[in-house]
From TrEMBL:
Residues 107-244 form the TonB-dependent receptor plug domain. It comes from Winogradskyella maritima. InterPro entries: Beta-barrel_TonB (IPR000531), Beta-barrel_TonB_sf (IPR036942), CarboxyPept-like_regulatory (IPR008969), Plug_dom (IPR012910), Plug_dom_sf (IPR037066), TonB-dep_OMP_SusC/RagA (IPR023996), TonB-dep_OMP_SusC/RagA_CS (IPR023997), TonB-dep_rcpt-like (IPR039426). The keyword Signal applies. Transmembrane segments: none annotated. It is a multi-pass membrane protein. Residues 407-850 form the TonB-dependent receptor-like beta-barrel domain. This is SusC/RagA family TonB-linked outer membrane protein. NCBIfam families: OMP_RagA_SusC (TIGR04056), SusC_RagA_signa (TIGR04057).
Amino acid sequence: MLHSQNSRTISGIVLDDATRLPLPGATILVQGTAKGASTDIDGKFNYTITSSKSVNEMVLTVSYLGFKTQRVTVGDRSYFEILLQEDAESLGEVVVTSSYGTKKIKQEVVGSVAKIKPSEIISEQPAVTFDDLLEGQIAGVFIDTNNRLGEETSINIRGQGSLTPLGQNIVGTSTQPLIIVDGIILSEELGIDGSNFFDAGTGNISENILNPLARVGIQDIESFNVLKDAAAVGLYGADAANGVIIITTKSGKQGKPSFSFGIQSGFSTAINEYKYLDGFQYQNILNQYNINNGNFESVTEWNGVNTDWFDLLNETGTFNRINFGVNGGSERWRYRANATYQINNEAQVNNDFKKLNTSFALDYNHNKLSASLRFSPSIAEKNDPNTLYNFAVAPNIPLFDDNGELTAIPTFGNPVAVANQNIRESKTLAFLTSLNLNYSILPNLKFTTLFGMDLSFKDEDRFFSGLNGSGQLNGDGFDRPLDQFQGQLGRRIQRERNTNRWNWSANLFYDTVFDKKHTFDALVGIETRRDFSDQSFAKGDDFINFATPQPISEAFEQDYEEDSIENTGRSLFSQLNYNYKKLYFLLVNARIDQSSAFGSDRNTALNAGIGASWNISSEEFFDPNGFSFVDFLRLRISYGSTGNSRIGSYRARGLYILGFNGYNGSPIYGNPSSAPNPNLGWERNNKFNLGVDFNIFGKYKMTVDYFRDNIQDIITSRDVISESGFTSAQINGASMINQGVEFSIQADWINTDTFKWNTSFNISRITNEITSLSGLGSEFSAAERARSRQVGFSNSTIWGFQFVGIDPATGRELYNVGGDIYDASYVRQNFTNNDWEPLGDSQPEFFGGLRNSISYKGFDLNVILSFTAGQETLLDRDVLDNYNILVNRNLGVNIWQQAWQEQGDIAIYPAISRTTPIVSNSSKYVFDESHIKLKSINLSYNLDTKALKLPLKNLSVFANASNIGYWFFNEGSNFGNSIAELRSIYPEMMTISFGLNTNF
């Protein structure tokens, strides 16, 4: 018989020390033995302890994933209020599942969600946007980085979510994921169908499209969550077809003010430099070209000049970044402020990218009310007048003429003069702002409302100086007097893009536990949003003062245009989660969306998803069956549909071009430019996912997912009858499938107090197939784009003619068309794009990456690699063998040894002649781009500040090398340029930097 003093009922509540909110599901143990399964959903516990010894001596242990375990001696108390503090090492197990305030521990997440923190991918890399750090680091996410700093990067989550436009002036449906920062839906810089002035491109007058993530400071990011399947993204039905990225920025921490400071500096050099013909080689090739053309009077000896334009326009660049922040707070208030200034001076002379990211975070929590304010102003400035990569002029032209002036070069201009006399700059001032309020109506019922705004003002200025060939244009001078006419001198282009995107949502969240077995939570809410972009364009040609930028109003020829894009939408969303005994989990979400982008009869869409998971390793039968080496095993499955309303301009309504009278600015006519289609509706993505998560031997955590996305009602362009007054219309006229497998593993090889070693690896395989095409069926792009849409083939297939070699007798290209061999001239005259064959695929068959981290006694070494396999690229023939540009431009050095010269030559490139027919879309220009990239090596050392008697909390110094080099699977010829140089005429940069980080 036990004595009564050895039996006592105790109760209490488990709270988060940061927010003072109840923590549901905390595990309660007494002296290492579980006495209660868990707390109730509101964090309360209540049960009786009975012991053969004094209850006063017993220890109550409380643990919760993501927090430090607390141990409290029971003593003579009967009620406990236990505050748990965040555990930085285990916070990675807590996953943000939506921007509406929902979180789950990793083992309870039903959907396919990948989470990564900046510390895992080395934030010391000199990237200007966070997505550049993610290349190859998340399974199923293919990131095609841009060597031109700050410009748009392609992010494809589980394949491209819509068709690539075939026309030059069609913007197309967005294929990028929905990006949400602290509840703010980021805007995209979209063009307008039919406009040459606002679309992105590579020409000198195309718009510089800014990466929206440039508005987010890398040092401000706390976590980066990628939502992939319907169970994860269905809550965002309207625009979640391409996946959702949720970024959470850092908050302040309770306590006295704590300051952080970091500084980093380094240098950048060009890698994989493209090799051009030198002066001697160029003159000999040019002479051969003129001889073969019968232009003998132009054959001259080499003048001895060998100008290395690349060397003149590339030098050692610099990289500098400085960061300062402060955070702190009381029990109710927490604050954080941070500023980061970064300058990337490129290896290309006069090209740079500068940005200032600031962030202010304020959090309040007291009783039933909590609130958070985020305000992040930023300034980004890009300058890149150095355009040698587009204008590689002849090397036998000297830098200076006989008078010591920069040599005048018609049409393109002296590249050094262009880099120093022209202006090509873009400035963006942006503000990201969100206000989030939470009120606990009842212990298990919470109301949340959020308002977010992405506001940006972008100005672009392009000036082509009349002092060099780029600003010396042909023309009639308009009304300029004949005695002043020297051709048009000077050109200036100015653009403005002002964007205002806001979103507001309100929701109710309810959670409860009944019978200690059933856990239930539900979310229901509403959302409204508006995205408005006002764009203007002004161009002036021919200035009297043409050496420096002048107001466009002073140009002899002027052109002004303006336009705008506006989309509004509203939604009703809901989500339900249920689990039984932490074994079986069920998720259901549904969303009704309306968008102004579509016709009035098609502007509403219902999207929904359902998912389930089974924690097999928690079953009672699991261990007895001999699976003791398995620490965790879970099976997940989901299915649902999402939509895509990001279709650019008002396609359902039709587009018109307004003409102006030029006097009072009033429009006098409107010409239709795009046919209206009131039946135009949402693109729909039906997503299926089957996943397995398992941990084995206490060291390895693995995830395998199979997915299949069936994308229907894809918006595409189709020709219409001429009597309609239009040439084409947008319709829901295609469907395709993305499917594949993702695998990721995290291995903790060694984990001791002094030595840690862990590795993360992922690999994905994704295939795409067009399954239907309505209307005219298969379509082909213009000749230079090598794209086609055909049922049964990938949307990313490269099309063209199969090159079989150079005829040794004639020096002309030979092609295999339909099993027969033809001369290039015959191919050009008798075959069209209808005779194209698939030549390759720009989407890799496999891609992924590896991270390796080693820590030893204060030293940390991190190595990051990425890779792609089975990826082809189509090169511009101008960089290889377009001989017709030889009269004023240089070519790659490959033709020096590999071009046909005389009968019997076994060559790669044809005879050097103007009359040599060249087939642009040729397998000769398709190269295997498969590679392994050594992306970053980072070595840091944490100094012992106490031993050094420094008044600092911590201090670390580091060295970082980024974008170090490539190993290509198929290097090609040992002579000249291989795929390493050919894949990117704009020089890539390797950056080596050093720095320190401290807190005090």
